[in-house]
Amino acid sequence: MTLTLRLWRQDGPDTPGAFETHRLEGLSADLSVLEALDLLNEQLVRQGRRPFSFEHDCREGICGACGFLVNGQAHGPQATTTVCQLYLRQFRDGDTLVLEPFRAGAFPLLQDLAVDRSALDRIIAAGGYCSLNAGSAPDANAQLVGRDQAALAFDAATCIGCGACVAACPNASASLFTAAKLAHLALLPQGQPERPRRVTAMVAQMEAEGFGGCSSHLECQATCPQEISADWISWMQRERWRRPTL
Questions:
Q1: 3-state secondary structure of 98
Q2: Which end of the chain is more exposed for a tag (fewer CB within 10 A), N or C?
Q3: Which of 17, 14, 15 is nearest to 6 (CA)?
């Protein structure tokens, strides 16, 4: 299998960048896009050139560390898939893949395909912690959680914080991410003590980071690898306006 890769090359946030074209031949269709990048980087190192920078960790679609645009789509064209789980068999022999970093003002570029997504961490930190007494291990049934309640909380908690929702949104909004992080705590008993202030604090931090507002394009839901529903954004807005300000 032969592919042409057009990759964004930029040494740092204060230097200009441009696309660079490389042709890879003899590729197995069972390779992931990240594994194809590994092969390219090995070639560049042998040539004495700087390899391309991109983020990754588990490569199992779990950690949320990887992420960039593939042909203009966050994580690429396959639904419910992170870029580390996007395999070359999704493309045709001879295709050209355009790889570029997530484009959002709140995600400053680090180098090449890697961006700084620590703004998402600061949104989580603004929500604080759960102040329930940890003590010794409680009985399993000491604090009852209904089946439907637990299932809803788990649906929101599956967010891996990859930032694809931000990259896909025309407004670079982090509303889906923030709503998911709020909901999975607010729906459980452990999240109740801080619930009145958490939504106000996290939404305020989201806005302070420079993320845009939601205008219901629903691109976030379409690109989310965990299929988190945009209905949580509506839930967050209702939660926000019935809570007192800090």
A1: strand
A2: C
A3: 17
